[in-house]
Amino acid sequence: MQTEPIRTENKHPRVMQLVQQELENVVQPPKNGRLPPGPLGLPLIGHLHMLGELPHRPLRRLAKKYGPIMSIRLGSIPTMVVSSPEWAELFLKTHDTVFASRPKLQVADCISYGQKNMGMAEYELLSSSKIQSFMPTRREELFNFVKSMKIASDSQSMIDVGAKTQSLVEQMAFRMIFGFKDGRFNFMSSIQELLELGGAFNVGDYIPWLKALDIQGLVRRMKACSKVIDGFLETIIDEHVQDTKELQGQHMDFVHVMLSLMESNNTRELHLDRDHIKAIMIDILAAAMDTSSTAIEWVIAELLKHPRVMKLVQEELENIVGLERLVEETDLNNLSYLKMVVMESMRIHPVAPLLIPHESIEDITINGYFIPKKSRVLINTWAIGRDPNVWSSNAEEFYPERFIGTSINVQGHDFQFLPFGSGRRMCPGLQLGMTVVQLVLAQLVHCFHLELPNGMSPDDLDMTERFGLTLPRANQPIALVSTYNVNL
Ligand code: HEM
C-alpha cells in the first residue's frame, strides 16, 4: 500500500528558529562561566513543570539538594533561587544595584499604564508624616468595625473574622487613597478581578514566542477589566482636581497629594502625569489590600491554634491599655509581646514567600558563579524562615518568645527574616502595613474572645496555604466571638 509522504515543509520558520535557539541554550554551557548548580530542565519549559501551585515548597526541596544558590529556567528565563540569609544579603545588599530591577510582565503592561507605577511618588505618599495624618481615619474605621463585631457577637452568631478584617483593611486603604469608602462604583470587585488576572500564571511571560498569541486570553481579559477601572479612576481624578487647590494641604488624600505634586514638581526630577497617578493608585491599593489582611489572617489563625499565646497577648493589653478604653495607635510601641507574635507569624507565613521577583540589569559573577543579565531572582524567604540551621530545631514551631533578647526586626537588616524584603526594592509600605496589622489585631483581641466553632480543637485548625498574589490561608478563620470585658 502506498503511504502519503511525510511533509517536512516549515510553515512557521520564525517559530522553528526560536525553538532551535531555545534548544541550543539548554545544551550549551554559558560562555562566561559556571551557572549556579541546579536540576536538569526540559526543553522549552525548563523547570516550570516542577513549581506547582505553591512554588516556594518545591523550591525549598530542590535547594536542599542543590544548595542556597540554585539556577533553574522558567521557560526561557534564567532564574536564580536564593535560599539562605548569606546569599540573600549578597543579592539584596552587596549587589543591590545590579538586582534592583523588576521583570516586565505582559499583564503588568495592561494594568500599570506601561509600568508607570514605580518611583519616588510612592515613597512620598507613604512617608511617616503622611501615614500619621491618616490616624483619625483608621481610628474611625476601627471603631465602626468594633461596633459591627459587637452587634454580631451579641446575637451569638459565628463570625467570619478573616472576611471582616479584610473588609476593614480595604476600607482603610480606600479612604486613604481616594478619600471615600468603596461602594460608589463597585470598584473593589473590579480591582479584585484585576489582581487575580495579574497573579495568574501567564505562559507568554516565560515562553516569549507565545506572547503574541495570548493563548490563555489573560491579556484580553485584563485589557477589558482595566478599561472599566480606568473609567472609575478618570472620574475620581476629575472630582479631585476641583478641590485640590481649595484644600491647600488640609485633609488631603493620596489623589490630592499626587495632583498637587503633579502641579508643583513636573519640571524637576519627579515627573508625574495622569497615567502615573492612575498607575500609582492601583499599585498602592493592590499592595495595601491583600498584604495586610493576609498577614492579619495568619496571626488570627495562629492565636486560635495557640491559646497560651492568645492569653499572653490579652494580658499585655490589659496591663498596657487597661479595660476602660479602646487601643490607640500610640499604644503600639508598648505592646512588645504583640509585636513578637506578629513577627513570628510573618516568619513562618510570609505574605510574599518569594518576595516580588527581582531582575539583574547586567552580567555579574558572584563567588565564582556567573549570573547573566536579565536573570530573574527569587528570594525564598519562606524557606529561610523555616530553616532549622538558621532558627534552631524548632524552626517550624510558632513560638514568639524566640525573639526575646534578640535585635531582629522587620526593617530588612536581618537577612534571616525578610517579610518586607530588603534594599532598594524593599516594601515602601512597611510602616503603614505594620501599623495596620498590629492595630487591628490588638483591637480585635482586646475587645473580643475568639473561639473555634463547634468545639473544634486547635490542633484541627486547617493551616493549608492557598495560591494567590499573596500567600493566604486556604480557609478563612471562622470564629465564635464573644465580647471581652472592655467597656465599649
Ligand atoms: C503586612 C503588610 C505588607 C507586607 C508583608 C508587604 C511585603 C512586601 C514585600 C515582601 C515586597 C517585595 C519586596 C522585594 O521584592 O524586595 C513589597 C513591595 C511593595 N509593597 Fe509591600 N507589604 C505590605 C504592605 C504594603 C502596603 C500597606 C503598601 C502601600 C500602601 C505596600 C506597598 C508596596 C509597594 C509599592 C511595593 C513595591 C516596591 C518596589 O517594587 O519598589 N506594601 N511589599
From TrEMBL:
Where does the record say this protein resides?
A: Membrane
Entry's PROSITE patterns?
CYTOCHROME_P450
**Which residues are involved in binding heme?**
C427
Pfam short name (any one): p450
**Does the record carry Membrane as a key word?**
yes
Gene Ontology terms: biological process:
secondary metabolite biosynthetic process
Query: What GO MF terms are annotated?
Result: heme binding; iron ion binding; monooxygenase activity; oxidoreductase activity, acting on paired donors, with incorporation or reduction of molecular oxygen
Q: Which cofactor does it need?
A: heme
For this UniProt record, the keywords arranged alphabetically read as follows: Heme, Iron, Membrane, Metal-binding, Monooxygenase, Oxidoreductase
Cellular component per GO? membrane
InterPro entries xrefs? Cyt_P450 (IPR001128), Cyt_P450_CS (IPR017972), Cyt_P450_E_grp-I (IPR002401), Cyt_P450_sf (IPR036396)
SUPFAM superfamilies (alphabetical)? Cytochrome P450 (SSF48264)
Q: Does the keyword DNA damage apply?
A: no
Q: Which family does it belong to?
A: Belongs to the cytochrome P450 family.
Name of the protein: Cytochrome P450
Question: From what organism does this protein derive?
Answer: Aquilegia coerulea
Traced from the root, the source organism's taxonomic lineage reads: Eukaryota, Viridiplantae, Streptophyta, Embryophyta, Tracheophyta
